[in-house]
Amino acid sequence: MEILEYFLKYALPLILAYFVNLLINKYISKERLRGKIHLVFLRGILIAAIWGLAFFTVAGYIPVFKNAWKTFAGSSALIAAIFGLAAQSTLSNVFAGIAISAAKSRPFDIGDRIKIDNIDPGYVENITLRHTVIKTYQNEIIYVPNSTVGSATIINYTQEQSFSFPIVVSVAYGTDMQKAMDIIADVVESHPTHHGLRPTVLCKSCDDSGVTLRVLVETRDFKDNPKACSDCLVEIMKRFAQEGIEIPYNKLVLINSEEK
């Protein structure tokens, strides 16, 4: 009976907390909550509360802690001040996380690609009570404190329905500009991942060696955009070569002084 009593008092609350959190992580996973950052953050608070309740329940049966609670209760103001100073950084991260996840106009959701100040852009993998988890293209995992995220300038690349990035191509003076512009527009529009209307090609600048043309490559998914820009540049060079359109480049002319 004594073993059963110890089990019920000290082991059972922790075991129950473990299995409840296991079920929460299984059925309310971040994959299922993708795009619902407020629910992901609330899940973290719920898990922390369950573990906290289990540990406090166990501590209540330990005589040393039982007497300590009475002392703590008598000096609650002092204890609150001590814990407040000790956990100032942690609490600021928690409150910042609540503010980020609870706002109607949230700056990002799980799965969005964002850039936080000078930190490398990446996809939001998770948000915990303490930090926001970002995964970059190089598979680097960056843990950014929520307090930093809350006060940072955030660029969200995926909240819009499409993403665009400019590519520039130079052509030599004397080129049929309309023909060159039509070729660039045709190449971009015919790319398999192109999204939207026919692109508009603009004259960006008139430089020393040629005229620089600029066009936006628009794709529905950001992940497709870098390859689409690369494919378009390669195809534009091929089409220019077929049509006899020169792409200017610096040339080095060597003169043999002995021949003079």
How would you concisely characterize the structure shown here?
The protein has 260 residues and is α+β, with helices and mostly antiparallel strands.
Notes on the structure:
The protein is of the alpha+beta class and 260 residues long. The protein has 2 domains: 2-156, no CATH class; 163-243, Alpha-Beta Plaits. The protein has 8 helices and 8 strands; from the N terminus they run H-H-H-H-H-E-E-E-E-H-E-E-H-E-E-H. The strands form 2 sheets. Strands 4-3-2-1-5 form a 5-stranded antiparallel sheet. Strands 6-8-7 form a 3-stranded antiparallel sheet. Helix 1 (2-27) packs antiparallel against helix 2, helix 2 (37-60) packs across helix 5 (88-102) and helix 7 runs antiparallel to helix 8. The mean pLDDT is 79.
